[in-house]
Specification:
With 188 residues, the chain is an alpha+beta fold. Helix content is 33%, strand content 20%. It has two domains: 39 residues; 136 residues, no CATH class. A hairpin with a 4-residue loop joins strand 3 and strand 4.
Amino acid sequence: MHRRAALIALAAVAAIAVLVWLASSGGPRAPQPQAALTEQAPTPTPAPEQRIMLLFAGGDGLLHPELRSVPLPAEVDERIRVVLRELLAGPGAASRLAPVVPYAASLEAVFIDEQGNAFVDLSAPPEPLAGSSTELLLAYGVVDSIILNCPEVKAVQILFGGREVATLAGHLDLSRPLALNKRFIAGS
């Protein structure tokens, strides 16, 4: 009988200890409803709409500007993505200009180094490109469109299919970043 009373007393002391511990730690917390968690998450603020200048090929062999209003994020790599997405979409429907990238390209990656050089990786052309005009307008249409809309970028190197290329058609060295070149922009 003593043994049974001792076990009951021990169980009572353990229960009291657990109750004291729960009371001192604030007790068990009720789970918060899912709606309360959703309300606490901040709502992302959309990027403000700004005008960008894109350069497309004209029949005169020069680059011509086309202005567009687009949501433009503050982060430079995201701005480059927006500029290239718009550039790769081509000129407006009513425009007499032509795309500077003469094939259905996609943007694979963007990287900016500490010196302000941007590296953009476009999908590779399905077949070799020909002609100095094609190569120059593609390169400087991309490079100048990025630099004119992202002033913190000093130069741009275009990669194709994840690789550096020496040239696309044998007329321009693409193995290094290219700086802004207004010589191919009409009216410059």
